Amino acid sequence: MTRLTDAGTRAYPWGMLLRVLILMFVCGPAMVLANDRLVRMHADAALTDSGLLKHILPRFTLKTQVRIEQVAREDAHVVLGTEGRPVFTGLQRTWKIDVRAPDHPGTAKLVDWLTGDVGQRTVASFAPDGTALFGPPEDTAPEVVEVSLDGDAEAGHKLSRTQCSRCHAVDEATRGWGIGSTPSFGILRALPDWEERFSAFYALNPHPAFTQIADVTPPFPIDRPSPIAPVELSLDDLEALMAYVASMPAADLGKPLDHQ
């Protein structure tokens, strides 16, 4: 026993042990908090390919600050598929959520959001061709209404001037600014999927190369830093930007072309 104690003492000097304990005390809560804000989810390929998850997951993150990472089935906290609690219908089937980590706070938030009014309306608002592809389970259909945006539109206008006008014309005063081939906010607002584009813009090229959303996007790779001054926003900033865009008039794109 003495030899083991002596060996342990030599292998772990008291000073080093004290530093390890301090790091565990200081960093432990932060690590737990980070894990609480990350939910690992697996979804059937048909659901992923439909585009629904790209439509709803950024909105969930925007409201809850919980990020979703899609992983293999065996590594998932939750699985969207054929087992568990019904959450919505579409693609000629009922989709269910199988909760594999019921004690995870982020998982609980995801289930509450998907089964609540806001989540159900967000699912129902996914209509890439003008027709809703998904809806609530039978006998639980809520009224389909536009998803509300609670951000500060005035703050969003100011943010768009400082963060977005280097590439986009964000209002009448910035017409002619930025890059000529980049669409203005007014043109983007006129598109039927404008809300999806803005809520997930940081994941759409070329934005990932220079955009960081706190608690959502991973840091830039060490070997691939941002090529320009990065755009750094919080989830509150993103919601403010969306509130501003929702309040602005859409550009008149004219009558669609008639194809013969």
Descriptive overview:
- The protein has 260 residues and is of the alpha/beta class.
- It folds into two domains: 35-135, Periplasmic binding protein-like II (D-Maltodextrin-Binding Protein, domain 2), CATH 3.40.190; 153-247.
- 41% of the residues lie in helices and 13% in strands.
- It contains ten helices and eight strands.
- It has helices at 2-11, 14-36, 45-50, 52-64, 105-115, 117-124, 153-164, 185-189, 194-199, 235-247; strands at 38-43, 67-70, 78-81, 85-90, 93-99, 134-135, 211-213, 231-233.
- Strands 2-1-3-5-4-6 form a six-stranded mixed beta sheet.
- Strand 4 and strand 5 (93-99) form a beta hairpin.
- The chain is globular, with a radius of gyration of 23 Å.
- The termini are far apart.
- The model is unreliable at 1-9, 26-34 and 140-147 (pLDDT under 50).
Short description:
The chain is α/β, with parallel strands linked by helices.
* Radius of gyration of CA atoms, rounded to a whole number: 23 Å
Largest beta-sheet characterization: 6 strands, mixed
Annotated CATH topology of the largest domain: D-Maltodextrin-Binding Protein, domain 2
Just name the CATH architecture of the largest domain.
3-Layer(aba) Sandwich
What is the assigned CATH homologous superfamily of the largest domain?
A: Periplasmic binding protein-like II
Q: Round the mean pLDDT to the nearest integer and report it.
A: 81
Proportion in helices: 40-55%
Q: What's the N-to-C terminus distance?
A: 91 Å
Structural class: alpha/beta
| CATH first level of the largest domain | Alpha Beta
